[in-house]
Amino acid sequence: MTATLPYPANVFVQMLQALDHILDTARTSPSGPPGARIVHARLAPDMFDLSQHVELTCRHALEAEARLAGRPDAVSIDLEGETLEALQALIRRTIDRLRDRAPGEATRTFGSDVEVHTTTGQLFRMSGNEMLDDWAFPQFYFHLVTAYAILRNNGVGLGIRDYLGHMRRHLVSGEDASGGARAES
């Protein structure tokens, strides 16, 4: 359960679980799985493909946690294959790493300076809070939503309920995310 994890690990985990569900929906689609080509699908020729967006979603979650713990650049991502199952395995390993790391991280540097070194050679210096608000969360959500959009663009039947499935736990009345009436408790 993500509620027992400290912030921001709880946010990353619940949205990574949504991404895992989204990929599972693609893999088990009633019209059949989209096939191996889907992991290389893009929204535009100059954009990353699905596998790169999933990898970057995982990377930004792990890097944010590492920076807050005072361990910048302590992240390695190993994608083991080019299938939806391999992408799901990467997501699940990332979730496990966030869960394993989070309880023991007593020292958080929300107010202290952290650095972000980009692959293009840029260096950004900001507080931990600024890093989350201005870098980590925007990057994380951009890549997650783009992965969702690639699947939608390739005919996978997804909707907002797949993306916000975690909101079911807050539903008080009306229909649950599966479309059925929610029983009052």
In short:
Helices cover 46% and strands 5% of the residues. The radius of gyration is 17 Å and the shape is globular.
- So, CATH architecture? Up-down Bundle
Shape: globular
Cα-atom Rg, whole angstroms?
Answer: 17 Å
H/E series, N to C? HHHEEHH
The number of strands is 2
CATH level-3 fold name: Four Helix Bundle (Hemerythrin (Met), subunit A)
The computed structural class is: mainly alpha
Summarize this structure as a short list of keywords or feature phrases:
185 residues, mainly alpha, Four Helix Bundle (Hemerythrin (Met), subunit A), two-stranded antiparallel sheet
List the topology elements.
Layout: H1 9-27, H2 50-68, H3 84-101, E1 113-117, E2 123-127, H4 128-153, H5 160-163
Antiparallel strand pairs: 1-2
Question: How would you describe what is shown here?
Answer:
The chain has 185 residues and is mainly α. It has a two-stranded antiparallel sheet. The two termini are 21 Å apart. It has one domain: Four Helix Bundle (Hemerythrin (Met), subunit A), CATH 1.20.120. The longest helix has 26 residues, at 128-153. The protein has five helices and two strands, in the order αααββαα. Helix 2 runs parallel beside helix 3.
